[in-house]
Specification:
Elements lengths: L13 H4 L3 E7 L7 E5 L19 H10 L4 E5 L4 E6 L11 H10 L3 E3 L6 E6 L6 E3 L2 E4 L4 E4 L15 H14 L17 H11 L4 E7 L2 E6 L15 E5 L5 E5 L9 H9 L3
Antiparallel strand pairs: 1-2, 1-3, 3-9, 4-6, 4-8, 5-6, 7-8, 10-11, 11-12, 12-13
Length: about 280
């Protein structure tokens, strides 16, 4: 059973306290480490959503609920230019940082805490990334995400959240450079179907994908899915995913959840063809 660090509310900086908060419980969803599932402060048995403000609460109310309810911790929702650089498994058994994490912490010079597991860091900065970034032992989020907070400040880091937009832009640039270039298609072109909506629905029906709603979308059509194929990775909810057919007849996939950042039609099609 995982042992989580207890929350130290008084050590959390004012800039985070002014944000919106949720509770979280660790829940096992298959093999691997437990998922930190967000719950509402005002309705602790109901799940919260990192994209639904009606499920958020104040810092003070979250701390009060944490002290009286059976929950594992509290979390801050990333809004209004607050970004978290989430460094996973970077603290070794002797309590030292690996070299890359140490470089990031020194470069940001902003409030940094130890993650609930005791093996990672959360580096909080002001600014935003244009897209969620996911790499080896590092994830960067600015929206549609909550972060489980401990208040265990990493030694030597300041007690304020500092502006670091320039560094965030640098991380986005590096992430894009690391992505392999998409090959240019030079084969035969297939004309779009006469019935775009019908072609989209037929494609999903062939894979037995539950459909929530069909609507027009920028000259084509968009189908909202009842369940995202990667819902088990979401911090909240099963929705947020959609499949699109463009006027050209090309298909596309999108999902609002940060965990699905970077996943497109090829990923969705491959998952469907494997039978999920």
């Amino acid at each position: 059973m995982t042992s989580w660090l207890p929350v130290i509310p008084e050590a959390i900086p004012l800039q985070l306290r002014e944000g919106k908060w949720v509770l979280w419980r660790a829940e096992q969803r298959g093999p691997g480490k437990p998922t930190k599932v967000p719950y509402q402060v005002r309705a602790p048995r109901s799940k919260a959503s990192s994209t639904d403000p009606s499920t958020w609460a104040s810092f003070e109310d979250a701390v009060d609920a944490y002290s009286t309810l059976s929950v594992d911790g509290i979390g801050v929702v990333l809004t209004a230019g607050l970004t978290c650089i989430d460094l996973d498994r970077v603290i070794n058994a002797s309590g030292r940082l690996d070299t890359r994490a140490e470089t990031i912490v020194e470069r940001c010079d902003s409030w940094t805490e130890v993650s609930p597991s005791g093996t990672g860091l959360h580096v909080f900065v002001r600014g935003a990334v244009s897209e969620a970034l996911k790499g080896e032992q590092i994830e960067v989020y600015s929206t549609a995400r909550y972060i489980a907070i401990t208040g265990h400040r990493w030694p030597g880091t300041p007690n304020v959240v500092r502006w670091q937009q320039g560094y965030l832009d640098h991380l986005v640039k590096l992430a894009r450079e690391d992505r392999p270039a998409r090959p240019i298609y030079t084969g035969p072109k297939t004309p779009p179907p006469d019935d775009l909506a019908g072609a989209l629905l037929a494609k999903l029906q062939a894979w037995s994908v539950p459909v929530a709603r069909l609507k027009r979308w920028e000259g084509g059509f968009l189908v909202e899915l009842e369940v995202c194929p990667w819902a088990d990775e979401h911090t909240s909810g099963f929705g947020g995913a959609a499949v699109i057919i463009h006027p050209s007849g090309a298909f596309d996939f999108t999902c609002l959840h940060a965990h699905c950042a970077g996943r497109g039609w090829r990923d969705f099609r491959a998952t469907m063809e494997r039978g999920r």
